[in-house]
Amino acid sequence: MRIHHLVAKLIAILNKTNASIAAAKPETLPRLKEGAARAIPPNAMAETTPTWAPKLRVVGYARRSSAKEFNDSVERQEKLINDVAVARRGRIVDHMYVDEKGGGRTMERPALQRLLEDARNGEIDIVIVEHQDRLARSLSVINELEDLLKLHGVTLMVGWQNRFA
User: Fold this and answer.
1) Percent of the chain having pLDDT more than 70?
2) Which of 71, 103, 118, 153 has the highest local Cβ count within 10 Å?
3) Domain 58-162 falls under CATH 3.40.50.1390
4) Which of the two residues, 19 and 54, has the higher pLDDT score?
């Protein structure tokens, strides 16, 4: 009974507020100056993306394994990356960076270097990889890559986990 009373009060307050807003003259309503930017709340990119929010640039990174048993690894990685992007952002990735050759011991891979350059230029917001070892085999190289991405404001998503926001 008490909850119903509180809900009824809340509805009455909302109705009164809506009525006073509707009755207000347009010149009395607060307005932004011409060309003023709207502030975007920090949690605006939660589970759903409002229409006024900027579109995040989501990319994926895949690296072909040199092991024979992983001949389908790039295709498998691309599918998982797109599944994560669809589940988390409601769409597939904008671009896939794929290194077909080259080991994971260093950062000297063409697609990885293009990804890092695009991150430096502010063209990427989120990078999704299947697993950390797709970035590199060495923990020190993985940490260096994570630091570089973070420095440029890029979020790294590893599989179904968010590394940092």
Assistant:
1) 63
2) 118
3) yes
4) 54
